Amino acid sequence: MRVLGICGSHRDESRSGVHQLVRTVLENTGCDYDLVSLKGKRILGCTACLGCAHDNVCRVQDDMTPLRQLIVDADAFVIGAPNYYSTLNASTHAFLERWYQFRHREGDTLWGKLAVSVGVGGTSGRPVVDDMDKFFLYNFVEPVAKVDGQGAASCFSCGYGETCKVGIPAMLFGPGARITEDMIPNVGKQPALLGTAVAAGKQLGERLRNGHDRQAVAQAMQARLMAMFMESV
Ligand SMILES: Cc1cc2nc3c(=O)[nH]c(=O)nc-3n(C[C@H](O)[C@H](O)[C@H](O)COP(=O)(O)O)c2cc1C
Description:
alpha/beta, Rossmann fold, 2 domains, binds flavin mononucleotide
């Protein structure tokens, strides 16, 4: 069993809460895994050229091209993104939009696979995991667990955090608050959040080892997607 982990943050590994949580989930699956960072990668959103309609292979040549095979080979996904404007950041959105290449005709490449979504925000990662789960659903991938929390927003280290009127420190602690190390919500000092990531990894690993029935999962996800459609029309 192989799991593909994606970190959609462009921040350095050592600073990225998303990276830390995605890695923690992966390490606890007990499976072989790849962890790919989108940092520095240029991945366009779907251009709706429909070049993929006949064979489920995207025609756009960019840094997504070599990732396609990793996606195909993976039994499950752990995908993490930072919260930008109360949704997933553009790079992760673009990466997931390109999964459109798998959504044609007999395109059952992703059907019935499993996933864990990870979201980190300066205040909350919740909107990220909720939005990301819809991408999974459209591809009949089951989101088995969500890991979302608060991370160390770059506003704490940009140099203007104490005077900025619109940054996260002002939002959380009021205008002019002095920044001290203990008020910075690094993911690494939140045992409950790390525990959620550990549990999500274990849950994913167990589901994979218990020989999950991909067809049954795909059918259940299809039903869930239809229910979502019916609510929105
Ligand atoms: C362009 C931009 C927009 C952001 N918008 C939000 C937001 O709407 N809500 C929020 O909670 N955090 C927001 N943040 C803060 C990030 O989500 C936060 O820094 C998070 O820790 C990033 O995760 P990372 O360290 O793994 O990159 C924003 C950051 C940037 C750069």
